[in-house]
Write a structure and sequence with these properties.
The protein is built from one helix and five strands; from the N terminus they run E-E-E-E-E-H. It is of the alpha+beta class. The protein has one domain.
């Protein structure tokens, strides 16, 4: 799960496993696997970094088990 911000400034948590694409149009648009489009203030690279950080935490946790 990653925390992102809508254009109106509200935060929400997105299950990053559902992300299909992230595009800059110039706003950042996240398209989910179910076709929902979310416009967020974070840039494409920031979204990618958040996903990598999240997945790294998952792997790190599973290695401790």
């Amino acid at each position: 799960m990653i925390r992102v911000t809508r254009l109106n400034g509200t935060n929400f948590v997105l299950n990053c496993e559902l992300i299909e694409t992230v595009e800059a149009t110039p706003d950042t648009v996240i398209t989910t696997t179910n076709g929902k489009k979310l416009v967020v203030t974070e840039g494409v690279e920031e979204i990618v970094e958040k996903v990598i950080e999240y997945k790294g935490k998952i792997l790190s946790y599973s290695n401790k088990l």
